[in-house]
Amino acid sequence: MEKKYIVRLTDDERSQLHEVLKKLKGSSQKVRRAQVLLKADADGPNWTDQRIAEAFDCRVQTVEKIRRRLVEEGLVETLNGAKRERPPTEKLLNGEQEAKVIAMRLGQPPRGYGSWTLRLLTREVVEMEIVDSISHETIRRSYFHVHGAAGRLAGRGGARNENEGGLGR
């Protein structure tokens, strides 16, 4: 079968790919893409897609996609892969909602409670109609995203059951 996308590497591109292989620099996907491109080079080994797929334990379609991407998008995009424009799942809280949740958490807990728990905070966020519904896990991720490791549950050293106590300040 005639190849639609012919890989013709320049000397500079070839040296970049050899550098990736020599230092095993980057992810395993990047190294594999470099190996595939070097073997697919029409001015080099010029292996068939089937032979490349067998040599590097991947599918023929993978080799074809790497060829296509090199021709259409260039070497850098081919090696590094496409960057996502948006995350795989949209954030449930926007910046304003996150700020309200954090402000609520920094304030006094409701009457009868000594400190905020994730579940209490979640219940209050829904009752105050900041969001329609949300899980305590989303609140936790949002809080720790802002506060990092310093925002761990306070007081008793290390991880513990969420129902045992409150959130640290």
Topology:
Elements: H1 11-23, H2 28-40, H3 49-55, H4 60-73, H5 75-80, H6 95-106, H7 118-127, H8 136-147
Helix pairs in contact: 1-2, 2-4, 3-4, 7-8
Describe the 3D structure.
The protein folds into two domains: about 10-80; about 95-165. The protein is an all-alpha fold and about 170 residues long. The N and C termini lie far apart (about 65 Å). It is built from eight helices and no strands. About 50% of the residues lie in helices and about 0% in strands. Helix 1 (about 10-25) packs across helix 2 and helix 2 crosses helix 4. It is rod-shaped and about 75 Å long.
- Helicity range of the residues? 40-55%
| Strands, count | 0
Q: What is the approximate shape?
A: rod-shaped
- The helix count comes to 8
Give the ordered list of helices and strands. Answer: HHHHHHHH
Question: Keyphrases for this structure?
Answer:
single chain, 169 residues, mainly alpha, 2 domains, 8 helices, 51% helix, 0% strand, rod-shaped
